[in-house]
Amino acid sequence: MGAQKHVLNEPSTLVVDSLKGLVALNPFIHLDEAQRVIYRPQSGTHRVALLSGGGSGHEPAHAAFVGPGLLDAAVCGNIFASPNVAQVRRGIELVTAQDKGALVVVMNYTGDALHFGLAAETFRSAGRGEVRVLMVGDDVAVGKKQGSIVGRRGLAGTILVYKIASALSDKGADLDKVEAVAKYACTRLGTLGIGLDHCHVPGTTAGESHLSAGELELGMGIHNEPGTSKLPLGTASDLVGNMLGKIVDTTDADRGFVPFKHDGKDEVVLLVNDLGAVSELEMSGITNEAVSWLQKKNITVRRVFAGTYMTSLNMPGFSLTLLLLPRDGDAYSSQDILSLLDAPASAPGWRWTSGQEPGKLGAKVQEAVAHKGKEVDLAPADSTEFLAAITRACKALIEAEPELTKQDQIAGDGDAGLTLEAGAKGVLKAISEGKMSGKNVIEDIKVISEVCDEDMGGTSGALYSIFFAGLGTSLRDQANSGAKSTTPEVWSKAAAEALTVLYKYTRARPPSRTLVDPLEAFVASLPSKGLSASADDAHAAADKTKELVAKAGRGAYVNQEELKKREVPDPGAWGIWRVVDGLRGYEA
């Protein structure tokens, strides 16, 4: 990949600048700038609220789909990183009527599952209304066996799900019915994407393409992760036929996700989606090939949607989505679903549609009130060294950013280095501003957990935040049981209990080619070996990930053999090693 140029002020302000431009374009929507929520002000007519969101970089999804007949709110994270819990909760608060509730429709990624799920749970537990979260997984690139833990990724088919759900909400349906139709649509979706190259995340060093001029990657996601296989570029006709053939295939039990009958009575809705850098000229040609292929296979195309719906920044690629319509005897009729898709909708990102078969034209932000728990003190054994160790760990992560970014450009979506760097800088800022005193480890660990959630975002931010929250809980419990200061035994017990808490929210277990590999190695060694030797064990576990098959995280979707050949460790695991190396006395 050559040098990348972008038109922006600063990478750090790009998301908010973009959202402000969206509000300037559409005066019927509002922006809660502090929490990066685009929303429609509530009117006198209450309905089941529809919310979506996730990492930025997929424009027009999701913010540009806020409008009548579509979303009530979209919550926007950093580029390719999930928004945090506070952002999601604010979005729910802004648009949810207590008597009707809300349905949150998001793509199936770990960070979104954690943050949107926790926000919905806390909103519901406060008695403020019923909120349900639906994770959409429409990707057919990865088989059921390889994706058994993480499930199918959410791709462009998500747009069709919330269009259907929103239209039914407009008809006055209750939450049960809105959720039911959305779930039904999810079971009948299949999406497959291709990329001619990777996109470039503003603010990062451009990586080198590992595709030749005549190659493409099949099974590309929307976070810059590699595809599942490489193919010759070939013609549009051959490529489209290959992609659709995989979506409609029912002969392979491991990859047959959509229940096509292939009896001449299958009816579909086709969505042709530009991933960011395919010309309109090419997109129309791709659409023509897709419709022609389906008609030749005796699959009736009832509706066609084509254009830019869900991108991966500036990726040169596209995805194809099929929504299999109901048969006689199903809970819904074909016309039921089509009428919901055809219902009027108005938002900047919503493309023109014919409503016919092919060829037939026809406010002020409220400050959150903090509720403090019971005050408990637990002093570090050495206050100066405690803060110095944290500072070393943060500096080690910051210096490792280029290394981690390069690893993640090969094994993931390219944002690992910047994500961990953001968390490290946030902790250093908290120390410099006096938010961490070094005198009460319980309060200082709480600050680190909050920084990880707010400044890092994404899956890494959630995992780090949960671990440190568990660490703080254990330290608090030990203080309540009589501990007066931290000792190696106190830290070892807290680390073990924090790992147990983390395992409540992730299915990843060693060996999994994720950050839990070195983390568990470190925690397990700590009681008997001490800090320095345990850091060596973490290093060995992180280095071992070069040889492992990814069982969780975005690496689970990547071509495993190609990953092994390139001998790159998991960037998340390598980040853990850099942290513990810094704690024990890393020197640049």
UniProtKB/TrEMBL annotation:
UniProt xrefs under Pfam families: Dak1 (PF02733), Dak2 (PF02734)
DhaL domain ranges (all copies): 384-585
A GO term for molecular function: triokinase activity
Active-site residues, as the UniProt record annotates them: H223
Keywords, sorted A to Z: ATP-binding, Glycerol metabolism, Kinase, Nucleotide-binding, Transferase
Gene Ontology cellular-component terms listed: cytosol
UniProt-annotated binding residues for substrate: G55, S56, G57, H58, D112
Protein name: Dihydroxyacetone kinase 2
Naturally occurring in which organism (per UniProt): Saitozyma podzolica
Species classification: Eukaryota, Fungi, Dikarya, Basidiomycota, Agaricomycotina
